[in-house]
UniProtKB/TrEMBL annotation, chains A, B:
GO terms for biological process: isocitrate metabolic process; lysine biosynthetic process; tricarboxylic acid cycle. Gene3D superfamilies: Isopropylmalate Dehydrogenase (3.40.718.10). Residues 4-349 form the Isopropylmalate dehydrogenase-like domain. One of its GO terms (cellular component) is mitochondrion. Its EC number is 1.1.1.87. This is homoisocitrate dehydrogenase. Transmembrane segments: none annotated. InterPro entries: IsoCit/isopropylmalate_DH_CS (IPR019818), IsoPropMal-DH-like_dom (IPR024084).
Length: 353, 353
């Protein structure tokens, strides 16, 4: 099977980590029967300056017509609003209907306080519909934004969460050591205040997860503020957390803090038969060009993309190589307290593939 | 000066901690020249069952016409939407225009990793306007909520944050040991996605804090997801954090996790010349009636209320007595790993007053 992968480095360290993602895919053993073709694509601040569009039409159309998946680095946002500029990754998620943002957060098994959770974030609606307006009143300006929650989007994200919980359980059952006994989905919302919107998310998720195919999955709920509290007090208790877009955004950064660095945390933006791997970190202008960015979030994002393209064996190889590098702890980038360069970390992981 | 204080225990452990709040106020030394009168008021789930209103009209009118401040315990929310029930504290904040929710989160100075921050949360708008609607579409139900941000509310909450930063600096300057060198306000938002609403919050806060009276206050910004990440990675860096309502709600629970228990964290809902102290914890049905609730969040909330009623000397007495109890660490409630009953903790703190 040949997979065509779009490469969208974006800005800043995106340009340093996406090439590492390409190299690990190319280095996968031939015995897996996978071939890759790559297409270089543009998006981000530099693209905006050069072409007037943060997400050039061409990038979208090539991804749609010509690719099986993609790797997206990171983009720099202007610090003040700039006319015509808006976040290309948010647009991409909507244009390709990548309805799930999947963010596994996990320590190595031997960590003093091991955690192993996946945050499954709805990726197309909520406040991210970006329908805003501003008006004047005698007391000054007032701005409003719409938070939109649909049964349809809530239903498919809950089903995705349930399926991920089952898949994780299957991997455990195959003998992979785990801190979890059984599959658990935690539905996060704020329906005590937002009874209609978050209420719809909650009841829809409950209904979907009550289906017979999820009979083995335990389901519980957390109000989002309490979820953040629990995330830090007893993170080991959580397996799969499902949340509307904005809470998912916040929770995944919170969870990332638990494993020590955003530089370790991957994500995948997943739709029907298409997935974009995306490290959770930003473009990090402060370390850009220094060759010290942690490539692990991107390498894991490449693996996560493969998982959702049904190449689980290939994904497992990458995860294992990354884990081996971390378990040994000899070649670590500065965000993890080490002194290794991006290139050294990549080579160490390629060697273990 | 005689202060009339409304007591609203609410449900669950609210009924165990609010009496402790009353006792510490009554126990303040006469030399402070303060007298208290108390009015018992109802709100919450039990009130709803008894009177049909979670926030009886009488409670609001007595607070408005007859009180200088109040202590609010906690209320139990139904787990599924109940017709006619909605959160009384959210309603109270709006009806009394208590526009600031102030949440100091602080360890004892001798903690291995001391932190000392205040979260200043806007308390009247954002998604808490609770303007929601639901409609049917061919693809199922869709619900929408309004997130409203006004220049007026953003402006006064930013000014409050600036003033709190200056007041904290004054206390430090008087010789109280602190981990902070100078006053810092961190403006939290998500204007990279919500350019109009959070954009308005951000620019308004920036403008207000650029005023000459805040010349000594350093101002920086954090995107809310990144703020949660930083909160856990380097909490010691933050002094005053100002945020719209929902982010403030989430951040204050996150910050509470850092000090080990919600049972330690107070809040005050502050308006013009009026303040309601409110522990950040909930009604905790699991431990209700066992006499083991941690009273400290309520005692600190009583002190915080006094601060905003310009009784700083009285507030300082309560803070010092609580800190002394925690520094010694002998009589601690179970949430802090101890075995002391509520009553024992209260008596230990009263003794130190
Ligand atoms: C850059 C920003 C628009 C984005 C988001 O909020 O989704 C980022 O925080 C993320 O989590 O991918
Ligand atoms: C109970 C709930 C409505 C409330 C809120 O969201 O404001 C609580 O979480 C708080 O922080 O006081």
């Amino acid at each position: 099977r040949t997979l065509r992968i779009g490469l969208i480095p974006g800005d800043g360290i995106g340009k340093e980590v996406i090439p590492a993602g390409r190299r690990i895919l190319e280095a996968l053993p031939a015995s897996l029967g996978l071939k890759f073709e790559f297409v270089d694509l543009r998006a981000g601040w530099e693209a905006f300056e050069q072409t007037g569009a943060a997400l050039p039409e061409e990038t979208v159309s090539i991804l749609k017509s010509d690719c099986d998946g993609a790797l997206f680095g990171a983009v720099s946002s202007p610090t003040t609003a700039v006319k015509g500029y808006s976040s290309p990754i948010v647009a991409l998620r909507k244009k390709l209907d990548l309805y799930a943002n999947v963010r596994p957060v996990k320590t190595v098994v031997s960590a003093p306080k091991p955690i192993d959770m996946v945050i499954v974030r709805e990726n197309t609606e909520d406040l991210y519909v970006k329908e805003e307006k501003t008006y004047d009143t005698p007391e000054g300006k007032v701005a409003e934004a719409i938070k939109r929650i649909s049964q349809r989007a809530s239903s498919r994200i809950a089903a995705m969460a349930g399926e991920i919980a089952l898949r994780r359980q299957k991997i455990r059952a195959s003998g992979v050591p785990s801190i979890h006994k059984g599959p658990l989905v935690t539905v996060t919302h704020k329906s005590n205040v937002l009874s209609q919107t978050d209420g719809l998310f909650r009841t829809t998720a409950r209904e979907v997860l009550a289906d017979a195919r999820f009979a083995d999955v335990a389901v519980e709920e957390q109000i989002v503020d309490s979820m953040v509290y629990k995330l830090f007090r007893q993170p080991e208790a959580y397996d799969v957390i499902v949340a509307p877009n904005l809470y998912g955004d916040i929770l995944s950064d919170g969870a990332a803090a638990l494993v020590g660095s955003l530089g370790l945390v991957p994500s995948a933006n997943v739709g029907e038969g298409f997935a974009i791997g995306e490290p959770c970190h930003g473009s990090a202008p402060d370390i850009q060009g220094m060759g010290i960015a942690n490539p692990i979030a991107t390498l894991r994002s490449a693996a996560l993309m493969l998982e959702f393209l049904n190449e689980e064996a290939a994904a497992a190889r990458i995860y294992a190589a990354v884990d081996a590098n971390l378990e040994e702890g000899r070649l670590l980038s500065p965000d993890l307290g080490g002194t290794a360069k991006t290139e050294e970390v990549v080579q160490d992981i390629l060697r273990r593939l």
